[in-house]
Design brief:
Order of helices and strands: EHEHEHEHEHHHHHHHHHHHHHHH
Shape: globular
CATH architecture of the largest domain: Orthogonal Bundle
CATH topology of the largest domain: DNA Cyclobutane Dipyrimidine Photolyase, subunit A, domain 3
Distance between the termini: 74 Å
Number of helices: 19
Number of domains: 3
Strand content: 5-15%
CATH superfamily of the largest domain: DNA Cyclobutane Dipyrimidine Photolyase, subunit A, domain 3
Helix content: 40-55%
Length: about 425
């Protein structure tokens, strides 16, 4: 009798612990072939940006090392995914493919094709609550109440399997380096200094947060000048840690609510897939946005003359990350002080953030622009000067990232009036 062989198709679930696809394969008691397929064209038009590609390279290396420590290895291939999986099944004699689901619109459609073409099974690994199991919500509070009413259904996090059978003969593999994910001109020194991608790095970050961040989370989470947040967003995006692992490790209700916003973002993207490029509130399609290349570049480079905005944009460029409070301030400045379309900001964040998640990015920008679900009213215009006084009271954050002075590119009071005038025309 031919021995069982399973393919475990890794995507944005780059971990061994609490990985349902891997658990299902191990439970079959046969050989396992772990595979990662690089097919960025299948993510189009939202193929991974430069910062995410850098992180992906490091995470794949870490996953391969973890697999080799268990007597296995990661097989790297290039797409198309369905053809690559079919070829691997033939090469290895595998009779089934296991994978964990993703919820981006293009990949939902792609995965339906794969599920129909190949024998296998998919699992929920990335969310606490699957969007397809809930009715559609546009407001966070009732959505989160519905989630909390089902919280007892969140299962315990699965352990990392210690070892499993390998195939008699390993199929050929590409190297991670051959995917050319790292930049040819090395601008990633700040990213290397700031982050440790991979499952071990995610565990370390969670332990750090539980040890030093939880006690003062309520007061400190809005302070960019101190490390008061979990900094787990990139690890969550790449699936180096699961939301279920975090849920059971951190019982703080305020922090769990932040996990809820992540769930809400994926819920919205699943039910309203057009919102990656178009406003959820259709009337905002008529908003009189401005096209101004010079001011857009000044914003991107952190040269607006507003210290908190410039500090945030320079932190982003250096580390691939920005504090959430500062994200709201810089986004408000772009769409309301400069009247530049939110899509321009979303694209810039997509290329520069190590945690560039399509659902979170879409929700965040539409919320700030006032055109999405549960959105901040358009007339709420963040004042970057008073925001700095309130949330960077000692000036430590600004001093670190934008200590030199630059002339302001707009008058905030006049820009606010202009934004409200534009909004009034929209409502007329």
């Amino acid at each position: 009798m031919r021995p069982k062989t399973s393919i475990v198709w890794f995507r944005l679930d780059l971990r061994l612990a609490d990985n349902p696809a891997l658990t299902a394969a191990v439970s079959r008691a046969g050989a396992i072939v772990p595979v990662f397929i690089w097919a960025p064209e299948e993510d189009a038009p939202w193929s991974p940006g430069a910062a995410c590609r850098w992180w992906l390279h490091q995470s794949l290396m870490a996953l391969d090392a973890a697999l080799r420590a268990r007597g296995s290895r990661l097989i790297i291939r290039r797409g198309p995914s369905v053809d690559t999986l079919r070829a691997l099944m033939k090469e290895t004699g595998a009779d089934v493919v296991f994978w964990n689901r993703r919820y981006e619109p293009a990949l939902v459609a792609r995965d339906k094709v794969i599920a129909a073409a190949l024998p296998g099974e998919s699992f929920n690994s990335a969310l606490l609550f699957e969007p397809c199991d809930m009715k559609s919500y546009r407001v966070f509070t009732p959505f989160w109440k519905a989630c909390l009413s089902q919280a007892e259904q969140i299962g315990s996090a699965g352990a990392s399997p210690s070892k499993w059978p390998s195939p008699v003969k390993w199929p050929r593999t590409l190297s991670v380096a051959s995917l050319e994910l790292e930049p040819k001109i090395d601008w990633a020194a700040g990213l290397r200094k700031t982050w440790q991608p991979g499952e071990a790095g995610a565990r370390r970050q969670l332990q750090r947060f539980r040890r030093t961040g939880l006690a003062g989370y309520r007061d400190n989470r809005n302070r960019p000048d101190i490390v008061g947040t979990s900094r787990l967003s990139a690890h969550l995006h790449f699936g180096e840690i699961s939301p279920r692992q975090i849920w059971h490790s951190v019982t703080n209700s305020e922090y769990r609510r932040q996990l809820g916003w992540r769930e809400f973002a994926h819920h919205l993207l699943f039910h309203f897939p057009h919102t990656t490029d178009a406003p959820l509130r259709a009337d905002f399609a008529r908003f009189p946005w401005r096209r101004d290349t010079n001011t857009l570049k000044a914003w991107q480079r952190g040269r607006t003359g507003f210290p908190l905005v410039d500090a945030g944009m320079r932190e982003l460029w250096t580390t691939g990350w920005m504090h959430n409070r500062v994200r709201m301030v810089v986004a408000s400045f772009l769409v309301k002080d400069l009247l530049i379309p939110w899509q321009e900001g979303a694209r810039w964040f997509w290329d520069t953030l190590v945690d560039a998640d399509l659902a979170n990015n879409t929700l965040g920008w539409q919320w700030t622009a006032g055109c999405g679900a549960d959105a901040a009213p358009f007339f709420r215009v963040f004042n970057p000067l008073t925001q700095a006084e309130k949330f960077d009271p000692t000036g430590g954050y600004i001093h670190r990232w934008a200590s030199e002075s630059v002339p302001p590119i707009v008058d905030h009071a006049r820009a606010r009036e202009r934004a409200l005038e534009a909004f009034a025309k929209l409502r007329a």
